[in-house]
Amino acid sequence: MIAHSFEGEIFGPAQRMHGATYVVDAEFQRTELDADGLIVDMGLAHTALSEALSAIAFRNLDDMAEFDGDNTTTEYLARWLFDRLAAQVASGGLGPGGKGLTGMCVTLRESDVAWASYESTLA
Length: 123
Description:
By secondary structure, the protein is α+β, with helices and mostly antiparallel strands. 25% of the residues lie in helices and 24% in strands.
């Protein structure tokens, strides 16, 4: 759960302060399973996602300097979470199996008809 507002006529009433509740999915991709038959250690992946989400959960994003001047749309937040998870992959935070990841997709769902994903390859 977060609170935020947007700037720009395209956002209509969402220009005013409002809340959003998301269900967050993180998909981890690789071309081959590791020696243990895994894509990634799901426990470590869950911990990394939880840590990233804790920075914004129950916060007014308009009050956070990190987002100053940005419209924190669902798409923006999907990319923001992707970047934090990618940093965990790069630093070894997802364990040895994380080094074999080739891509990720982060999806934020506001409802059954409104969601956005950010997907990219990993370096």
